[in-house]
Amino acid sequence: MASEDPIPDSGSDPYQTPTLAFKQTLCFSCWDISSNLSRCIACKRVSYCSKKCQKQDWNRNHKKICKKLIALNKRKEYVSPFGRHWGDYYEEQALLLHCTHVKEIIKLILAVSYEPYCYHCYRRESQLEDGARLNVCQYCLLTLFCPSCQQTHPSAECATLQNIATDDKIMVDLRRRTGKSSTISFTKFPRKQHVPLSSATDWYDYYTRLSDMGGFRSKMNRDLKYQANDPKEREFVEYIRYGTNTTTIQLTLIAALEATIPDISTRGSINLHIIGAAGAEFSSVPAFEELLHLLPSLTALQISFVGLDVSEDLKDDTETQKSHTLQCCTTCTKMGRSISITTWRGPYHAYVDTKFYKTPDLAAAFHSGFSVEQQAEWGPTIKYLALAPHPTLFTAARYFEIQGEMGVWKNLGAEFVKNAEVNKWKGMSPSLSVCGDKPNEVTYPNYWWYIVKQR
Ligand SMILES: [Zn+2]
Ligand SMILES: [Zn+2]
Ligand SMILES: [Zn+2]
Ligand SMILES: [Zn+2]
Ligand SMILES: [Zn+2]
């Protein structure tokens, strides 16, 4: 493949490493597909296409985790050739990660969590008899089978996983060409008349009727799968589907604004607070222009990103707040429309007491996960939001998070503008669950949503 292209630095963001690389069907360093990948002989948990790639990854990342992976391998339990239950496999995984106190090394956690194992008997390769190897499903490249088990898995599941393989290729291609892992596509020209997003039934309807991809109406299906044979058009549609994982943020916000502001179609200005903003929100910033493009009366959009993950270079105390104006398209600029962005590093309940705080029209916390992690940090903010003077949108990828969150809100006496339900504007690119309830479980960004009512 394209060996002349610069090798992406997979060390900078572990979450942006292709899943296929963890499954050892891509070179862990340059992310090329190769039929003769060779493994790190010490840990056997990463594969490379060449000595050069191996050396590069060793210096960049692998030397930090190889020894730890070897230690994990030594902890393997005996498993009967008849296999075991998913729960037993999962427990062993959790134990491995817990025992080694490696919680801080995300890449290591992912290498273990996404490790290849037999789909039917849940044995990893080191647990097979006589050095037997796992075979990979030739369609999805993500499911593996030991030689003693059936060599198939359900076709619907395989089809879903094939999207991950497609998306991995898109991501690698993007990183090579642009240095970024995400692609952003939104409505090219601002709409002249307001058409409520709530009138669209799904992403397909949004793209072909509200946005400007009407020309693709007959060329893709409702799942945004391309239906014809032109390779350039196919690639474009695949990028569009992949891009929904970024613009899910903006469309979900527009849907929430429509649900909470009765006169949204005539509003000239909107003030948004994004709580707990992190990587996903920041990389989607250019797509905030979609709010201007779908809401024609809007001329001034003010967005404040507040949270502990607001990056160090944006760090501020209560004395100052960083602010900048987002460059809009020429049409919007000519019309005098603007998007102003401010950032403040710290917990939201503390931001409320600063001189910068202005009651927003809507606050939003995407994938806060407040019921399962960082409870100490989120606790006071959630308590505040239960009785805040504005509505707050929440999203989560998995149902058990929603269940946990509902329990918390109930105790705080919160009420809802919108009860928890599946979000029409969830991202359409699946990712393999790191700790699923069953093998090959996938999640979608912003799958669930609800809106807490203002007081
Ligand atoms: Zn390579
Ligand atoms: Zn190694
Ligand atoms: Zn098996
Ligand atoms: Zn498959
Ligand atoms: Zn514009």
Automatic annotation (TrEMBL):
Taxonomic superkingdom: Eukaryota
UniProt-recorded name of the protein: Uncharacterized protein
Organism of origin: Lindgomyces ingoldianus
